[in-house]
Amino acid sequence: MTRYTSIEHLKFLLQDVHDFNEVVALPHFSHVKWEEAWMMIESAKQLADRDMAPYFREMDEKPAHYEGNGVVRTHPQLKTIIQQAAENGWIGGAAKFEFGGMQLPMMLFNAAHHIFVAANNGCQGYFSLSAGAAALITSFGSKEQVETFVPKIFAGQWQGTMALTEPQAGSSLTDITTSATSIKDGFYKIKGQKIFISGGQHEACDNFVHLTLARIEGAPPGVKGISLFIVPKFFPEKNGNLTPNDVFCAGDFQKMGQRGYCTTHLVFGDNGNCKGWLVGEPHKGLSCMFQMMNEARIGVGLGAASVAMAAYQASLQYAKERPQGRLASEKDPLKSPTLIINHADVQRMLLTQKAIAEGSISLAMECSKLSDLVQATEGEAKQKHWLLLELLTPIMKTYPSEQGSRSAALAIQTLGGYGYTTDFTVQQHYRDLKIMSLYEGTTGIQSLDLLGRKVVMEKGRALLILSESITETIKQASAFDSLKVYANELSEELIRIDQVLKHLIQFAKQGDIDRYLSDATVFMEQMSYVVIGWQWLKQAVAASQKLRKEDLQSQTRTFYESKIHTMKFFFRYELPHAAACAKVLMSEEFLTNSKDALVFD
Amino acid sequence: MTRYTSIEHLKFLLQDVHDFNEVVALPHFSHVKWEEAWMMIESAKQLADRDMAPYFREMDEKPAHYEGNGVVRTHPQLKTIIQQAAENGWIGGAAKFEFGGMQLPMMLFNAAHHIFVAANNGCQGYFSLSAGAAALITSFGSKEQVETFVPKIFAGQWQGTMALTEPQAGSSLTDITTSATSIKDGFYKIKGQKIFISGGQHEACDNFVHLTLARIEGAPPGVKGISLFIVPKFFPEKNGNLTPNDVFCAGDFQKMGQRGYCTTHLVFGDNGNCKGWLVGEPHKGLSCMFQMMNEARIGVGLGAASVAMAAYQASLQYAKERPQGRLASEKDPLKSPTLIINHADVQRMLLTQKAIAEGSISLAMECSKLSDLVQATEGEAKQKHWLLLELLTPIMKTYPSEQGSRSAALAIQTLGGYGYTTDFTVQQHYRDLKIMSLYEGTTGIQSLDLLGRKVVMEKGRALLILSESITETIKQASAFDSLKVYANELSEELIRIDQVLKHLIQFAKQGDIDRYLSDATVFMEQMSYVVIGWQWLKQAVAASQKLRKEDLQSQTRTFYESKIHTMKFFFRYELPHAAACAKVLMSEEFLTNSKDALVFD
């Protein structure tokens, strides 16, 4: 089997870079010990090796597809996968004890999920989506709702889904038209259509719990009139019987990639008899849904990072085994060809991939830890962690999705023509990855969130907290002579962010909000370079601390040196583009005004 | 039918930017008149509309595939396509009269081929490959070889191919092992295997003329011992009979994209009876092949630009028709959604695509014109055109291939989730495009060619000629007040290229050729920004000249203004990354040394 991730990197992140023990020292997580946690990770790896990775290609070659009559055919292995994930705690494990969970830190939960996505990104979505749906019900649902749905979802018997998108609305949730008419006692008749519903119908689960956004009759217009409903395919009665509900799968979408993960079209209430159960308060649905979306956004970013990691590992293995060509300095055609990993250009492609994938996974661990700290702390500390997580979430979603595609393209390029053929998996990684910049909010939506909401929230306090955190890392790095130059460069990039924001904020102050936000995506790119640079500096600090010990084995020494080398690579090859983004953002010209739509032909 | 190119842009390039009339003023092309040439383009567009574009999706959905027994099933329309292309002169049209061609300028020929690729890139390869193979035979083959093969290829009855790549050698032609043993009179027994042979076997032609690289027994090692052979599937006897030859198709490669265009595995001489016919001198095969490869590299670059153009047009059409969301300044959710083309982020994505696609097509016209000038001039002038073409060829191959993929990703992004589904074509464009950075020499190979050969050839004379040409455009632009600032920026980028080369050349002078070449791909990127910036400034100059006339219709005025707007966009959003590349290249650190291969895990 091709290696698809580096478990050593994961250990390094959990232990040395992001200090897992700091999390489990908190009372909320004190039942978790590092040794057991790591055993869970190793067992997750075995599960992925045995039940997921071997089906990666097959689930692409025989995609999930709609057969008619509401039937979506999925791979026969899917049931085993979901069952195994459930039994091992990878659906409900992060839930609190009171809801039947294991109260695991997200750091641990997401580390395992990283392994699953890297092994087979066409299957992990099913059970991570269930985890997210159950978390939403535990957060906002009634006791009865929790008891009715959550245990079945945790057991992998029922599939949870998110039903937001409608054909006419796309990213614009304001324009949702699915309607809800009160029956009684919190029950509503639902009518409408939802598209792009991942896991919306398949063969591996008995029931489907659609967390559905709809508009109660007479609700205020826009996002302030959206409510959240549980709409199951079979409605569980008090006696335990399941009554068929008027929601059915009318078709699916065939996709360029992630073909094992079905994408369905659901019709609610076609016979006027679709029953939904209100979750939380009327008209407050979107803010509830945002909890799930925020987790899902981190999940998508981590997913993109994980697919990029798998593609990197596949291309690395090839580069270590494939002899071809000679160094330019070797003129003798009779000398044996060298392994392609010895070519500088191949090293550049591999280091770029490594920097993107491992840097992104580090950011995912940063976000997971923040999520744990929000969970396990109170007051001012909690608020600070929450603000920083809010700010990082759109970046976490976007950087791996965008740069991961570039990374997977380099994996193909490393294999040359072979990489483009279906004989190798890198082309599947490339196809699979592209969806990551689209679902759970496109790159454009994330960028508006970053610049339009997160940067300005609480008068810029989230950004200040980020800046302090980065400055702390810079200070630590400056203690090592060998890291000083990089620490200084990151300081300069922080200043540049500040300059850019000072320039942009003028437009907002003048009331020209459209112009303020017009290059939000470029700002996202600039911020991402700085945030991933921070993650790499953090890793270099941790590695440098380890290297101070003189009794390291040569292999261990090389491992830590490789982290420092990759940090240097990121700073030399990637970070310079942050200044280019700043130059774009500081321009006096406004070239994407809606008045300019005429220029297209 | 979805619009797939802008014929107006093509006209602008041919007439106003690259002055087609300058070419047809030369005696060699004086039989061609603009009006007739344009009629040919319009008729090519009709042909593409009728016989190619309608099959674009179908050729992907039902890919060419190997059925066993040497049979490769291709789309039934392919025969019509090749026949129509042949009858309309799009295989042999650029050949000289003496070879039965129409002696058309490459500017015209490639303009038509741009239309064909944009319409259906899964079919154009077949007949453009035939055109290249026939050109090779007319350049280096004997009279008898020309008479035997060329008319059949021009008629579309026989398919020409390039058989270079071998499984063990990949990009390293030095390591080719296919052998040739002399029989008599220039005939040889060929033995070996070739892979990735586009169009190597299919149902639409009667015979296959494989231009094959092999090593004559006793030849010097390396590239100096490679000879070129014609190895047909059926050998034409003097009496006109066709004798089956011992070359057969043993399988194919299924690919992520460009699935209509078959990619085969050929076995030569498995029964010890494969007859090849030497072309040109023994051991001089590679330099002959390079003629075809250079043309093919321009063709691939143009192809990538054309697919990017088709993806741009598809996403543009969607953006003009799809209402979704509101501008940030519009707070009223009851207002109707706006068309997405009015969102700044969508405009940014469209302008990026337009800048990449149209800029690349402009460079293709520049190269095609140079090719015509090389053909039609003599002495010092010819040498200058040739040098500039040599320098531009790897850039022409690479920029559209690499940036085209980014462009097609933005086409998907413009459509949102829909773009990822097989209901729309942009995902096919994205998949198809990725091959362009791989075949005819990967990006790494092109970059080594640029920095290792072209930049240093004749003591840097090619680079000097390019610099003079760009400076000429800068001078023209400076005559327009509105273009001065951009002209100055391009001057600065020229200086930056110079600084980078001064830095890099030190390593070559010290004999460290590996380090000199280590970041050739980054240098390629920097050069590409400058060269495409030049093409955009050239277009802006031509548009500004047109706009001086006061009697233009409003629509025409908008058209020219759109070119200037796109130039500005390229300079504001893309060109700043050239400086970032320079920063990478000027670094004192060397992080991709072969000694560092240990860092990968």
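qc> Chain A touches chain B through 112 residues (CB under 8 Å).
qc> done
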